[in-house]
Design a protein that fits this description.
Distance between the termini: 40 Å
Strand content: 5-15%
Largest sheet: 5 strands, antiparallel
Order of helices and strands: EHEEEEHHHHHEEHHHHHHHH
Length: 283
DNA sequence: AGCCAGGTTTGTA
DNA sequence: TACAAACATGGC
């Protein structure tokens, strides 16, 4: 077992996991058990550190997964210099948020599930998907299930996906799985520049601009993407004095302004608006 | 109880 | 192009 120590100034485990970028994690001992495809780690804050415990063979994987080589200090400092008060405040409260390097395929399936859905329910659906079709494994003495392969999902009928709670998204998930099983190569999309990548993702049945942006950002790690969902729309209207209503135009407004910082600033703002704003009002 | 959630598809003008 | 209804489910 490997134990990775990392300075906690720009790595708050709770904020990084609960800011809505991933769905397969659960409270465990001093922190969380966090899963990615077929791997799992135990991650928590203690003293001045964020600590990641994982199997020896997975050390490099999780160092990359938690984006440990990136300079978050400079990202944070650019957010703090912003003329927009809400961005300064969001960055300060979400200073410990890091963008994870997630698996492209798992991210694509997961964010198709996320559309017009809430985070607790998204987590439940993905958990049932894994329990039913994933492989049972153990980390420490905790049982977990791997994220199902496209091949395993492609073998199910529509009713299976409806039964685990996907609702009208059942057919989106089934068709994507079948397409991948028949040779659709998601990983090859990585050759495309950001704009072309988004255009390609939107061609997938059940993927619109918002889901494409999330996959572009979280799976393909293009930080010049700025997903606009219902929460970001609220921030835009309330805190940026926005007048646009088309979400694609709102996204462009932000990427034009923030460039390669877009994805990071988007996470600060999203997390603040969805979670932290209410907490600070309550005191 | 009823609105809403990390929206997309389909249909219409 | 722009807008609106339909879509399943359950969180809160």
């Amino acid at each position: 077992m490997k134990k990775i120590f990392f300075d906690n100034t720009y790595f708050n485990v709770k904020d990084t996991l609960e800011c809505g970028q991933l769905f397969r994690f659960k409270p465990y001992k001093k922190g969380y058990l966090c899963c990615s495809v077929d791997k799992c780690c135990y991650v928590y804050n203690e003293d001045d550190f964020a600590i990641i415990e994982c199997e020896d063979a997975d050390k490099a994987y999780f160092e990359n997964y938690f984006d440990l080589s990136r300079d978050y200090k400079s990202i944070f400092e650019r957010a703090e210099k912003s003329e927009f008060e809400v961005l300064k405040k969001s960055a300060n409260q979400g200073k410990g948020v890091r963008l994870l390097n997630q698996d492209k395929t798992e991210t694509l399936f997961s964010f198709i599930v996320s559309q017009n859905n809430n985070i607790p329910r998204i987590k439940g659906i993905i958990e049932r998907l894994s329990e039913n079709l994933g492989e049972e494994k153990y980390f420490f003495d905790e049982k977990y299930y791997t994220f199902p392969t496209a091949s395993k999902m492609a073998a199910q009928n529509k009713e299976f996906f409806e039964k685990i709670g996907l609702g009208y998204r059942a057919e989106y998930i089934r068709r994507l799985a079948v397409d991948i099983e028949n040779g659709l190569d998601i990983l090859a999309f990585n050759e495309l520049p950001t704009e072309k990548l988004r255009e390609r993702l939107v061609k997938i049945y059940g993927v619109g601009p918002k889901v494409a942006d999330c996959v572009t950002l979280f799976g393909f790690r293009r930080s010049d993407a700025f997903p606009v969902d219902t929460w970001i729309e609220k921030v835009y209207l309330e805190n940026f004095n926005g007048t646009l209503t088309d979400r694609k135009k709102i996204s462009k407004y932000f990427t034009d302004m923030f460039g390669e910082d877009s994805g990071y600033f988007q996470q600060y703002l999203f997390y603040y608006k969805r979670t932290l704003e209410k907490e600070s009002v309550k005191g």
